Amino acid sequence: MKVTIFKQVGKEKIMIEGEGESLKKALYDVAINASFPNVYKCGICGSDNLTIRARKAKGKHQYVFIKCMSCSAELNFGEREEDAVTYLRTNEDKQLAWKKLES
């Protein structure tokens, strides 16, 4: 069985699929990869001109992040080691951890 959900990042809709022998297992599979909220606007400038990017640092660490194309701010995805749940990084106050990068 397959389950498909959509997440919103700025103006983009992202399709995420899960698969399993039962509905519960398919939903679990999709939930691991989609355990993050929709992100409609940049937390720094408020623009909805967002995209998802990826990079590799020092040849081994892989990063996936949301990038604001208006102000260059970034919001990193994280992944818990114990269960591979994907999430968006937050600050100590539980707000999304947007970072303005200097050019």
Give your account of this protein's structure:
With 103 residues, the protein is mostly beta strands. It has one domain (2-88). The chain has 1 helix and 6 strands. The protein has one helix at residues 23-33; strands at residues 2-9, 12-19, 50-57, 61-68, 74-79, 86-88. Strands 3-4-5-6 form a 4-stranded antiparallel beta sheet, with no helix packed on it. Strands 1-2 form a two-stranded antiparallel sheet. The longest helix has 11 residues, at 23-33. It is globular and about 45 Å long.
Task: Please write out the topology.
Layout: E1 2-9, E2 12-19, H1 23-33, E3 50-57, E4 61-68, E5 74-79, E6 86-88
Task: Report, as a whole number of angstroms, the end-to-end distance.
Answer: 46 Å
| Poorly predicted ranges | none
Oligomer: single chain
Largest sheet: 4 strands, antiparallel
- How many strand elements? 6
Descriptive keywords:
103 residues, mainly beta, 4-stranded antiparallel sheet, two-stranded antiparallel ribbon, 6 strands, 11% helix, globular
Summarize the entry for a quick read.
By secondary structure, the chain is mainly β. It contains one helix and six strands.
